[in-house]
Write a sequence for this structure.
């Protein structure tokens, strides 16, 4: 079945450091790919998405490129801020028989220190 | 818009008790779903609905019931709570133009003793 593998956390960075969170996937067909973010005490929010190969999703300084050849969708940000501290989830769309299911990775907790 | 709301925020149950977790959305979304979040497990789909009167099972449906009598509401019922159901529960909704761009509620933290 479909699956998503994210790098293990937690990740601790200093403010203004470069961030990469690795995400690889296994899927049949051509899924859409997503990054969701969960701030402390809140539900998940969509951060960015890409719907086909070579698409780049971007939002709030974060970027991720849909790489079909390496089945990857790594999240990057050039300069993190304390306010970016959150848990980040990579996800893919899983379709079939009317189900609009998202398959999530286990999440990567990011802590940014001043 | 309030978005997706969930009640209660916290709940403690004893084994064998039943309860209903409430979820409502005011965005007229067709698609609603329930996930549970456990440490190191990501989110797993419990049940989902593609419209009023239509529900189906997700990845981990055992021990849970749902119904969808209106577009707005999608309650999750625990029939006989077990310690394995201790988790954080999230409700989400989306529209049929972008069904995977899901809006999540703030969650209900449930502890079963």
């Amino acid at each position: 079945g479909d699956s998503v593998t994210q790098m293990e956390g937690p990740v601790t960075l200093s403010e203004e450091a470069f961030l990469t969170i690795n995400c690889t996937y296994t899927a049949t067909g051509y899924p859409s790919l997503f990054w969701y973010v969960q701030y402390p005490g809140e539900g998940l929010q969509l951060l960015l998405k890409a719907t086909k190969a070579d698409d780049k999703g971007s939002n709030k300084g974060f970027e991720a490129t849909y790489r079909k050849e390496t089945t990857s969708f790594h999240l990057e940000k050039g300069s993190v801020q304390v306010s970016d501290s959150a848990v980040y989830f990579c996800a893919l769309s899983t379709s079939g028989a009317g189900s609009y299911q998202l398959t999530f990775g286990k999440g990567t907790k990011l802590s940014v220190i001043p | 818009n309030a978005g997706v709301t969930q009640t209660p925020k916290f709940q403690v149950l004893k084994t064998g008790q039943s309860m209903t977790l409430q979820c409502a959305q005011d965005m007229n979304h067709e698609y609603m779903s329930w996930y549970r979040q456990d440490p190191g497990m990501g989110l797993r789909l419990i049940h989902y609905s593609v419209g009023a009167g239509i529900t189906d099972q997700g990845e981990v449906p055992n021990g849970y019931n749902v119904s969808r009598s209106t577009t707005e509401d999608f309650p999750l019922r625990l029939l006989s709570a077990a310690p394995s159901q201790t988790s954080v529960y999230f409700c989400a909704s989306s529209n049929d133009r972008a069904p995977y761009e899901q809006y999540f509620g703030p969650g209900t933290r449930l502890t079963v003793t």
Observations:
- Chain A has a mean pLDDT of 92.
- Chain A touches chain B through 21 residues (CB under 8 Å).
- Residues 36 and 93 of chain A are 13 Å apart (CA to CA).
